[in-house]
Specification:
heterodimer, A: about 180 residues, alpha/beta, TIM Barrel, 8 strands, B: about 550 residues, alpha+beta, Sulfite Reductase Hemoprotein, domain 2, Sulfite Reductase Hemoprotein, domain 1, six-stranded mixed β-sheet, five-stranded antiparallel β-sheet, 18 helices, UCP030820 (chain A), Sulfite reductase (NADPH) hemoprotein beta-component (chain B), metal-binding (chain B), iron-sulfur (chain B), metal ion binding (chain B)
């Protein structure tokens, strides 16, 4: 099943893919969003994910979305702006930088952001599960990551102790509910 | 002790499958060294000086005889027939083969064990008082709370890539036997005047390169909120802890930099959103956790049996020595906790052979309801021994070489594996421990010295907790040569304190002589029955310095 899904995905690949390998809602995917890391000016193409500061200056334009650096602090004014974004990307400058997990949870759980939250940067297959639990629904894999491995290990665990964006109930509550 | 249900078992089984695949991808070259590193560390696997090292979790030090037997078998099949109990209540294997580790983890899973988060920049094994549940000064058994914290922190999706490692310790007694002040977070459970259970939460303690004692973040947290509050504490650290410099990445540096008031403000601000959320504990959830730690089916011990035990203690000097040092009072009359000393000259501190593990497992079945505890002083404890069986147990321990009546004395040295095994170490530590144990082996002298913690670390990562030893010894490297720095005045018990460096460091062969000089100053200056730490606090470091460097 996995390989046929992959085949369909590869068959559907356009000649020029704007971004890197993308997994959306657990499925291999592609979309029109380009990623620009240029802090100086807007790219020519649309739609484009651009640095936060650029987006803040041009946020009213169609087809622009921000990406947040991992040290972003979600101040109230920034949150107000972000809630209007069509998509929010969070950058992992290194896969060992865990701040993005907190950012995603805050956007989802605290601020109720319902649009796409996309992981970009050093996104490796062994992080995807935690990312999904923290509220990322789009995972832009680093270019060298084997998609087949990524899909296979999207959900290595069928049970979790803590609530997350995926499961809202702590396991201790579930146990009590099931035994009562 | 805690028994897995199908959820716990599923989780560790799935963890084994995940790691097996990660190992395969690594060995096939599809995962780089750097990318495999945190994955293997979070499964306890280090690449060490001679071989990989695997650190197996013993959650809050609780171990069953069945588990210990399984560990014995694992050390025999996959290692060299012995293991090393650590200062964090875990067990390390020093010689496993890299490619065998998934199989080892699979065998551990069969006895409800794992190596999850025993290393790496994540929340580590939660540690506690080795006398939890049986200590007379206890107000709340910390083990159910440790289990709740274990579950909360295990595979926590948000906190797998923290700036640095994160250690939590919990105590529920008046006297702190869990060293909570030198942990990233320390939790002390206490009862308010109305009998309500509350938690004092400390943050920012730790040893390593920059030792610090934790500050109080919250004095009186109601128990329902323990997990949400911990989540807020760790989240603030995850967001704001330094990531640019490994040596400044622990939470203690953040707390120091912000000041405890600002750290607390951020935690409270975060917690305001998490409070009353889905991880809020309920009476039923806590009761369920408590149900895993029932009182064992103890029998009545007659007054006559207690009197006989007292008489034996009076008549037999060797037995009396053992009881005084290695036997601890129990909340139930007629029962005692017995500490098995793993400080033996022919073994490194904390080392146990596979044969000894099996023998100890048998003793646990006969004398201790099949349960054991691992202490952060690297000993083992049988927590429920009736007094009329202590003599028999004592004889068995003598045969095993685990009856050294030196628990809590200078000879009960805490020691990391050091340069003989560890790739991080600057210097060896085990030979230093052995040289000191050899020099000070006269029991009368050890008893005369009284309670004295001597802790040795082979490098400033401080796995041997040298900062909190009354006497601390740290191996340092100077231009490729091993030297030893000595500090005095550390204390990990109540009123914790960090040791002060005595002065320039010493050659390895001079260390026992220097310790001897330090002890002489203490013996000369002490008031009657004054412990080493109290004399030190009264007279300061100067008299010691003057005598040692005279």
């Amino acid at each position: 099943m996995l390989s046929s899904a992959l085949d369909r995905f590869h068959d559907a690949l356009p000649e020029t893919l704007p971004g890197s390998l993308l997994i959306k809602q657990g499925q291999p995917s592609q979309d029109a969003w380009h990623l620009s890391r240029d802090e100086e000016g807007l790219p020519a193409y649309r739609p484009a994910i651009v640095p936060l500061t650029l987006w803040q200056r041009h946020g009213d334009q169609e087809g622009l979305a921000p990406w947040l650096s991992s040290d972003t602090v979600l101040e109230p004014t920034l949150v107000d702006q972000l809630l209007r974004a069509p998509l929010i990307a969070i950058d992992f400058p290194a896969f060992t930088d865990g701040r993005g997990y907190t950012l995603a949870r805050l956007l989802r759980e605290r601020h109720g952001y319902e649009g796409e939250v996309r992981a970009i940067g050093d996104v490796l297959i062994d992080q995807l599960y935690y990312m999904t639990r923290c509220g990322f629904d789009a995972l832009a894999l680093r270019d060298d990551q084997p998609l087949e491995d990524a899909l296979r290990w999207l959900k290595p665990f069928s049970v979790s102790y803590q609530p997350g964006v995926d499961v809202r109930e702590a396991l201790f509550e579930r146990r009590l509910r099931e035994t009562s | 002790m805690y028994r897995y249900d199908t959820y716990d078992q599923t989780l560790v089984d799935e963890r084994v499958a995940q790691f097996r695949d990660q190992m395969e991808r690594y060995l096939a070259g599809r995962l780089s060294d750097a990318e495999f590193l945190p994955l293997r560390l979070q499964n306890g696997l280090y690449i060490q000086r001679h071989a990989p090292m695997l650190r197996i979790a013993i959650p809050y030090g609780m171990l069953s005889s069945r588990q210990l037997r399984a560990l014995a078998g694992i050390t025999r099949r996959y290692d060299r027939g012995y293991g090393h109990f650590t200062t964090r209540q875990n067990l390390q294997l020093n010689w496993p083969r890299l490619e065998d580790v998934p199989d080892i983890l699979a065998e551990l899973a069969q006895v409800q064990m794992h190596a999850i988060q025993t290393s790496g920049n994540c929340i580590r094994n939660t540690t506690t008082d080795q006398f939890a549940g049986i200590a007379g000064d206890e107000v709340e058994d910390p083990r159910p709370w440790c289990e709740l914290i274990r579950q909360w922190s295990t595979l926590h999706p948000e906190f797998a890539y923290l700036p640095r490692k994160f250690k939590i310790a919990v105590t529920g007694a008046d006297h702190d036997r869990a060293a909570i002040q030198v942990h990233d977070i320390g939790v002390r459970l206490w009862h308010d005047d109305a009998g309500g259970l509350r938690a004092q939460v400390l943050a920012g303690g730790g040893m390593g390169r920059t030792p610090m004692l934790g500050d109080v973040v919250c004095e009186d947290l109601p128990w329902q909120h323990l997990l949400t509050y911990l989540e807020a504490c760790v989240r603030v650290y995850n967001q704001f802890g330094r990531r640019d410099n490994k040596f400044k990445a622990r939470i203690k540096i953040l707390v120091k930099a912000l000041g405890i008031e600002e750290y607390r403000r951020r935690v409270e601000e975060e917690w305001a959103h998490l409070k009353d959320g889905p991880q809020t504990l309920t009476e039923a959830a806590v009761e369920s956790a408590r149900s895993h730690f029932p009182e064992p089916p103890r029998r009545d011990v007659s007054e006559a049996a207690i009197a006989t035990y007292q008489q034996l203690r009076h008549d037999d000097r060797a037995f009396a020595r053992f009881v005084t040092n290695n036997v601890t009072d129990h909340i139930v009359p007629g029962y005692k906790a017995v500490t098995l000393s793993l400080k033996r000259r022919e073994h490194a501190p904390g080392d146990v052979t596979a044969d000894q593990m099996e023998a100890v497992a048998d003793l646990a079945d006969v004398f201790g309801f099949g349960e054991l505890r691992v202490t952060h002083q690297q000993n083992l404890v049988l927590s429920d021994v009736p007094v009329d069986e202590i003599e028999a147990l004592w004889h068995k321990l003598q045969e095993l070489g685990m009856a050294n009546p030196t628990v809590g004395t200078l000879n009960d040295i805490i020691c990391c594996p050091g340069g003989d095994y560890c790739a991080l170490a600057n210097a060896v530590s085990i030979p230093i421990a052995q040289a000191i144990q050899e020099r000070f082996d006269d029991l009368d002298y050890l008893y005369d010295l009284g309670p004295l913690d001597l802790n040795i670390s082979g490098c400033m990562n401080a796995c041997g907790h040298h900062h909190v030893g009354n006497i601390g010894i740290l191996g340092v490297d100077k231009k490729g040569e091993e030297y030893y720095q000595i500090s005095l005045g550390g204390n990990s018990h109540d009123n914790a304190s960090l040791g002060k460096i005595l002065g320039p460091s010493f050659y390895r062969e001079d260390v026992p002589g220097v310790i001897d000089k330090v002890l002489k100053v203490y013996v000369e200056q002490r008031h009657e029955d004054e412990h080493f730490i109290d004399t030190y606090r009264r007279i300061g470091i100067k008299p010691f310095k003057e005598h040692v460097y005279a």
